[in-house]
Amino acid sequence: MKYSLSASMFALMFAVILVASCATKAPTPVQEQPVPAVVPTPVETPVATPVATPEPVPEPVKVAKQRTVVTKVPVLIKEASFYSDGLADAYAVYKLDADMKNVVEKDSYDAARPEAVQRIISDFKDGRLAAETVYEADGRVRSRRELGYDANGRVAQERILDGKGKLQSASAYAYDASGRKVEWRVLDTAGAVKATSSYTYGPGGLVAVALKDLGGKVSGTIKLMYDGDRLAKRSYFGADGTLQKFESYTYEGPSLAAVEYHRADGSLVSKTANSYGPLGQLVKAVEYSPTGAAGNYTVYEYQVREDSEIETYYE
Q: How far apart are CA 209 and CA 173, in angstroms?
C-alpha cells in the first residue's frame, strides 16, 4: 500500500509537470517566405521635337502708279422733228466751242427753206453762260436774255430785253443752305414782284412747286412723286386744288423709257417713248396716240467728246 501511494503521487506529479511544460512551451515559429521585390518598368517620356517658327512673310509693298482714264461723252449737235409719215418738219443745229463743252450757237430751220429762221448766240464769261441773243432770219435782234450769278456760281438774276435793248421782265432766284432753289420771283420793269414760285423738297428731291400771283395767292401747284430717287409722277393742280392733269414716268435701267400724259380722270392723252444709243444718249423720241399709233418723232445726233484725267492706283 505504501508503494501504491508513492506510485500514485509520482504519477500525479509527473502529470502536473507535463501540463505545466505544455503550457509554457513557446510555439515553433513559422518561417515567412520572402516577398519578391517589384521592379518598376521604366516609362519613356517622349521628348517634344522643337518646331521651327516660320519667319513672317512681309506684305508686298504696293506702289502708287498713274494711268490716263478716257471717258466718252456724247454732245448734242442736231435734233430734227418729223411727221408720222417721215416728212421733215423742222430741225436745229448746235455749234460747240473748241472744247465741245458749251453750245455757242443754235440755228433753227424749217423744211421749207435752207436758211435759218432763227439763231441764238450764246456768250460765256468765266466758264458760265452770261447771255443769249435771239436773231431773226434777216439778222435783226429779236430778244436778249442776260444772267447774273451769286458768289457760289448759281443763277441769281435773269433779265429779258427786247430787240432794242429795252427791259421786258426780270427774275430773281433764292437758295437754301444746301444750294437748292427755293424761290423764283418774276419782276416787272420797275423791280416789283409780279409772280412767285416756291419750291419744297423731300427725301427724294423736289416735291412741290407753288405758283403765286401778285397778291401772294396760290394760282396753281405742281406736285412730284418719286420711285426711289427717280421721278415717277408729276401732277398739276388748279387754284382751287383740283387735279388738272398728270404725267407718269417709266424707266429701263437708268434711262427714262417713256412719259405718259393723262387727263385728270386718268385717260391717256399721248405717250412719248425714248430710244438710247450705246453711250446712254437719247437718239429718238416717238409720240404715240391713246390707241398706240405712232405719230410725230424727233431724232437726235451727237458728236463724242473724249474727256481724259489722270487716275492714281496701287499695285
A: 14
pLDDT (0 to 100) of residue 6:
41
Instruction: Name the residue with cell 503550457.
Output: 23
State the Rg of the chain over Cα. Answer: 54
Instruction: List the one residue out of 74, 73, 90 whose CA is nearest residue 299.
Output: 90
Give pTM, 2 decimals: 0.76
- List, in sequence order, every residue forming a beta bridge with 133; answer none if it has no partner: 121, 144
- Write down the residue that cell numbers 504519477 correspond to: 11
Residues 6+ apart with CB under 8 A from 126: none
What tens digit of pLDDT does each residue of 142-155 get?
Answer: 999 999 999 999 99
Among candidate residues 116, 43, 49, the one with its CA nearest the CA of residue 78: 116
DSSP state of 2: H
Task: Please check whether residue 154 is in contact with residue 173, taking contact to mean a CB–CB distance below 8 angstroms.
Answer: yes
Kindly write down the DSSP assignment for every residue of 136-182, as one continuous string: ETTS-EEEEEEEEE-TTS-EEEEEEEETTS-EEEEEEEEE-TTS-EE
Average pLDDT for the chain: 88
